[in-house]
Amino acid sequence: MKNNILMSVLLTVSLSAGLPLSAASHVDVVKMRTENRVNPLGIGTSTPRFSWQITSDRKGVVQTSYQILVASSREKLDRNEADLWDSGERKSDEQLWIPYQGKVLLSGSEAYWKVRITTNRGKSEWTEPQLFTIGLLGENKWSGTWIGLEDLQPGEKKGMHTRLAARYIRKDFATKGKVKRAVAYVAGLGVYEFYVNGQRMGGSQALQPAPTDYRKTIYYNTFNVTSLLTEKNAIAIKLGNGRMFPMRQEKAYLTPFFGYPKCRINVKVEYENGKTETWATNNTWKLSFDGPIRSNNEYDGEEYDARRELALKGWTQAGFDDSQWQKAERCAIPDGTLMAQPMRGMVEKEFGHPVSLKQRHDTLIVDFGQNMAGWIGFQVRGRQGDTIRVKYAEKLQADGSLYLDNFRNALSEDVYVCNGKENGKLWRPAFSYHGFRYAAITGMKKARKENFTAYTVSDEMATIGHIETSDTILNKVLENAWWGIYSNYKGMPVDCPQRNERQPWLGDRTVGSLGESFVFDNERLYCKWMHDICDAQRSDGNIPDVAPAFWNYYTDDVTWQSALPFTCDMLYHQFGNKQPIIDSYPSIRKWINHILAEYTDKNGIITKDKYGDWCVPPEKLELIHSQDPKRKTDGKLIATAYMIRCLQLAEQFANLQDLKEEAKAWADRRNRMMDAFNRQFLTNKAGTSRRPGHVLYPDSIYYGNNTSTANLLALSFGIAPQELRSELIKQVVKGICIDAKEHVNCGVIGISWLLRGLSDNGFPDVAYLLATQRTYPSWGYMAENGATTIWELWNGDKADPKMNSGNHVMLLGDLLTWCYQYLGGIQQKGINVQQVAEADASVAYKHIVLQPAFSIQNCESVKADYETPYGVVKSQWKKTLQHVDWDITVPCNTTADVYLPDGKVETVGSGDYHYSVEIPTR
Could you tell me the pTM of the whole model? Predict the structure, then answer.
């Protein structure tokens, strides 16, 4: 039915333009992806999925068919010899996540693919060939053993501040003929740098592989090393700790110890004569721990003694004398399953030089003008034995020294000991990162700003959304949000990059992942994280608060753990990828059943909650958490509301997999819990309470103790009866505008639904008021008081430093989602405020709804663009009191419902459109 509607709309567009459907026009296929990656090496599946985008200079373009060719070589594909798969011409408008259906693809195999499409505007040319290779699918495809050292060495220790030197491991190999192809598969735990004949592989990649629970999953990376091999070759790896050898060991029950750094490497060599061999790690490889990296710790930093470089000079080159090195030990096989890393992971990018450099006693204070996560490189000059120290911080004390209290006991310091021969060599750490804007540097004299360079370290992903409004403070907040999100992508989404925490808390992203998906192409990262969460689930169904479970926090909270179904839903509707739902559904089912069985009371209410409405703005600026009971929302109300939403998602996930009976069971349970919720927490207008002894507001309707969070959850999750919604939203507006004096009045839970809840229930102007507020508590207050990221606390400039990160994202709530969906007006058909999908809801923006909140009086203009999986949507408008000028762009192969400010609605196909509309006077 949807396809028929689409064709009808596009046919109308074509005829109205006076053009025959067969008219030739320029249609291109661009941005081809395999498993949503460009030319990926070593993917972890033999049935990859293909996607592409379409561009055209014409309107109303719809794909009517496609043909995919897959060949085992570039030469065959160039000749259109699809020896692996020829899909044939398939009548379809599908262009996302199309599964390979050809011959079985074996481990290590290489393939090339291209596609040609037909549209109602003509046929495209064949695309340029795209490459993908298959990884080693299964442990039995690997040769050799895990190697490393399985014990502490002199000078190393566990404890509060763990110390472990980097491991340097190498071996020489000789080729046995002309090499046709050589591929290296590298599993280095915890983090590594890999070298072939002196060249570091991976380019700008850093801190590989992505962190996991090594008891469950271990990632390896794949490199094509064909062009680097000669007759004599050196394969070398430098191993750092990462999270394998943890940063802290003071509480064994809290922080799991995974072991000591180790690696497993296979270099598969294919010769022109048809022979093959594998160079694999074993106990004939040589190892040294006497290299320059004396200690590396994610919390404390890296210690580098350049005096030890001489003994290792040339260690990554063939012919190096390693006779004095010890044999690498064969290590115990890790419990985790070896799997191909599903995304590229972290990369280093140059940020720039400091904006200021000041001398303070014997210390240089550098300021880069931006809070970020990464490291500082510096040009080394000094005598042998001189020590240079770089101490990192997010802000300064009043006297100009570093403010370090909020780092807790994270030392966050890089130490470099000179060998006297550096002569301006640029050095930066390899196996640690820091959260910082400022640094105090000692041991350098006569330094200039140009001697220091900041580098960011974050997961590599494109920025796919941009938005600019007429409000300057909101624009600054949006910039700060970009930096906060970018800083906290570390192979997993973490809470902060600076102090002794840096943990992947689920609650920070339960709703936050949706807003982030409008800014970054984070699909690969969050698919990986869903796997992390499922890995962390206990046998009883309990999901931890932190995943991977680097901290053993299994509190049975509901709101934090809801990140699993919430984010699976985000990945499906934002990116069109349903595989995370299919893979995670057994874990989701097990978790929900666990919570229902353990924590449902006789009234049908969920009784377990750990965090409440975390970080409500406190009544006193020095507090971390509010102590006022009027500001606190009942944890049972929060947990029950979130479980109602999770039951709704479980129903949708079951239907998506045609599990009709399970879907009905979830729906029945949800309906019963909604009834229980209203019986327990709703106070009605007649003045009677369902709860004995509850104090009533006169003639009012509200939930719980009438916090905005309580009422918003009932509204946003469809719990509140329809006839009561208008009264409930009035309570929310009263709480914000009167009680809180036009400020945010809720914590992490309420802020997740606040702006969309207000807008969907008739008060977008109040949402805009909060989004542009400049005084405490507000996002604008942070920006006005020097923040260049988002704080952990609304009062982050004055609160107790025990919990006062300057680079967090959890308080963003639904701000980003709201800006794109309500200011830009970029939404999807059939999905409402809480992303509840109707039966015919759009997926991946196949059918777009463009409906900005033109009624917001103080918002005069917005420029928004967002790259959906189909292509870029643009919505740029400017208004006066009487008139709106609006430019939109709709991607090829999609349609859009355009809601004009005069009340008219147009359905259009792809292309660029301009609207100039008078606003009706009231």
Answer: 0.95
